[in-house]
Specification:
The chain is built from 15 helices and 15 strands. By secondary structure, the protein is of the alpha/beta class. The protein has a five-stranded mixed beta sheet, with helices on both faces. β8 and β9 form a beta hairpin.
């Protein structure tokens, strides 16, 4: 417990002196000296100079040694796989991106393993210690299979975490990608005061990540936030609604393309439909109005149940300003309380940031708290612009 408290102080306030760590933790100077000495000898903290501007003897200051180990964050989507390697401060050291192997199953396992190893080889920092993988579905805690992930064939038939662990030789945690995006938005600079937020992602599908009191809400089976299955929009009792969700059938990519085609007789991509609406195309405008209506209804349901301080809109469709303006306007008409709706700050890299935050917290807890009940180490995020630059 003492060691975890010391690491938490150094991680959050470093560079910091031993005396300042003692004041923050309430531990004796002798205890601090022993712990910091051991951490320094093992390479987990390092000296970075001395205090300045104080009368009398100057004190040595310490920080977490960023190159002592690395973690990897993976965003596994139906069309793309992204991997990012981070140091112990969350700074991105290297990243890669490839189209997802469409044969699915074990071939995707091999692809992710290869990409993580290749990303690790791009850096001469410390050994890889932990991997977090974001997936477009719900990890089954019993079997390790990924449920509700129709865009990656065969991923519901394998224990993804164990298969990756066998190939990489490090602990692997698998989490829903929208949950990771919610954590990423909360972790990075600018969201620190928003301890109750909901990240709504609209793209190929629709889902939500829920952060309550600064912690991710997963639910009894890990499916909290599967808002695509809210029972409105389409008939929730139809067979298709049981596969992809009634709301998703009227609000995601295929729905937008289909609605516009039904109104205009023309087939356009979603970006082209947005462009057409911006140019005054009445059918395109009506299509976006219909989609915004459904997402506003979903947002009202979320607010009524969870009472968040903020809804963050993400995904290739959800973060579009044209859609958010419509959602905000409609929400004001159907819900009595105003709730801030903002676009994702991290965009396509929100899930990578969330994966990095979980990986670093797990690593710090395993290294420095050794599973002590009640211990907690929250790793502060890197500078917001530095993270975005690292993954671009």
């Amino acid at each position: 417990m003492s060691q975890s408290a010391v690491v938490q102080a150094i991680a959050n306030y470093g560079p910091i002196s031993r005396a300042s760590v003692a004041k923050l933790t309430g531990l004796s100077k002798q205890t601090i000296s022993e712990i910091v000495g051991n951490l320094e000898a093992d390479g987990w903290v390092r000296t970075v100079g001395q205090t300045e501007g104080h009368v009398g003897r100057r004190a040595v200051v310490y920080e977490i040694a960023p190159d002592a180990a690395t973690v990897a964050s993976v965003d596994l989507g139906g069309t793309k796989v992204r991997t990012a390697l981070c140091d112990l401060t969350g700074r991105v050291l290297a990243e890669r991106e490839e189209p997802t192997n469409q044969t699915g199953g074990m071939n995707v396992v091999e692809q992710v393993s290869r990409m993580v190893r290749a990303t690790t080889s791009d850096s001469d920092f410390g050994d890889l210690k932990f991997v977090v993988v974001g997936v477009p579905g719900v990890p089954d805690v019993t079997t390790g299979a990924i449920r509700m992930a129709p865009n990656i064939y065969g991923i519901d038939q394998i224990d993804l975490a164990n298969e990756l662990n066998a190939r990489l030789g490090v602990e692997v945690l698998v989490e829903n990608d929208v949950n990771l995006a919610a954590l990423g938005e909360h972790w990075m600079d600018g969201r620190a005061d928003e301890d109750d937020l909901v990240f709504v992602s609209v793209g190929t599908g629709i889902g939500a990540g829920i952060v309550v009191d600064g912690n991710l809400m997963r639910g009894a089976s890990g499916a909290a936030g599967e808002v695509g299955f809210l029972p409105f929009g389409a008939d929730p009792f139809e067979a298709e609604s049981l596969q992809v969700g009634a709301l998703e059938r009227v609000s995601a990519t295929d729905a937008i393309i289909g609605q516009y085609q039904a109104l205009s007789g023309k087939t356009l991509s979603v970006p082209d439909i947005f462009d057409a609406a911006n140019k005054g195309d009445k059918e395109a405008e009506k299509t976006l109005d219909n989609v915004a209506l459904q997402i506003a209804r979903a947002s009202a349901a979320i607010i009524a149940v969870l009472d968040p301080s903020l809804i963050v809109m993400g995904g290739s469709i959800g973060a579009r300003e044209e859609l958010m303006q419509r959602i905000s306007r409609i929400l004001e008409q159907c819900f009595p309380r105003s709730v801030s709706i903002q676009p994702s700050k991290l965009g396509a890299h929100a899930a990578l940031a969330g994966g990095a935050s979980i990986a670093l917290s797990h690593l710090h807890m395993s290294l420095f708290a050794e599973g002590q009940k009640g211990a907690e180490i929250r790793v502060p995020p890197p500078a917001f612009e530095a993270f975005k630059a690292g993954v671009s």
